[in-house]
């Protein structure tokens, strides 16, 4: 059975990145990307859906993200989905799904910008006929 795990997301940071170091002194930076999707419902009304995607970045790239990005910075992230689970101190089972970045491109128009990054129109909107993820619940054929 073939497997494929690739994520591409473009959006803006919801808050400043948070950099930490592992016990082996490897940098890891965490941030959340907000990505908007715009669609029209059955009545033709324009709707907007926002997805908040947690991202982790490792190594030198983590250092660069911490140095050059801040809340509101537009980015294009390529990576893979990683899931984890743990038990809380209260005994509850917790789950997390995040993107582990393989590449983070700093887009133009952000609050901080390092020289040489690629530019893109981070404000462009793609209006679809259906909500992201497929048809709405009342359109499912079963």
Please provide a brief summary of the model.
This protein is mainly beta and 142 residues long. It has one helix spanning 59-68; strands spanning 7-13, 18-21, 27-40, 46-58, 74-87, 93-106, 127-128. It is built from one helix and seven strands, in the order E-E-E-E-H-E-E-E.
Overview of this structure, please?
With 142 residues, this protein is mainly beta. It has a single domain, classed as Nucleic acid-binding proteins (OB fold (Dihydrolipoamide Acetyltransferase, E2P), Beta Barrel). It contains 1 helix and 7 strands, in the order ββββαβββ. It has a 5-stranded mixed beta barrel. The two termini are 28 Å apart.
**Any idea what the CATH superfamily is called?**
Nucleic acid-binding proteins
Query: What is the name of the CATH class?
Result: Mainly Beta
Mean pLDDT: 83
Q: Termini distance?
A: 28 Å
Helix-strand blueprint:
Blueprint: E1 7-13, E2 18-21, E3 27-40, E4 46-58, H1 59-68, E5 74-87, E6 93-106, E7 127-128
Parallel strand pairs: 3-7, 4-6
Antiparallel strand pairs: 1-3, 1-5, 2-3, 3-4, 5-6
Key features of this structure:
single chain; 142 residues; mainly beta; OB fold (Dihydrolipoamide Acetyltransferase, E2P); five-stranded mixed barrel; disordered C terminus
């Amino acid at each position: 059975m073939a497997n494929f795990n690739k994520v591409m997301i473009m959006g803006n940071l919801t808050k400043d990145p948070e950099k930490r170091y592992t016990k082996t002194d490897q940098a890891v930076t965490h941030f959340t990307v907000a990505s908007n999707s715009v669609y029209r419902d059955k009545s033709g009304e324009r709707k907007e859906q926002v997805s908040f995607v947690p991202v982790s970045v490792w190594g030198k790239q983590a250092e660069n993200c911490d140095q050059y990005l801040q809340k509101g910075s537009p980015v294009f992230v390529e990576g893979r989905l990683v899931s984890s689970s743990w038990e809380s101190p209260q005994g509850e089972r917790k789950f997390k799904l995040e993107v582990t970045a393989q590449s983070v491109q700093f887009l133009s128009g952000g609050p901080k910008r390092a020289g040489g990054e690629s530019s893109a129109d981070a404000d462009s909107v793609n209006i679809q006929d259906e909500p992201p993820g497929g048809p709405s619940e009342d359109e499912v054929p079963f």
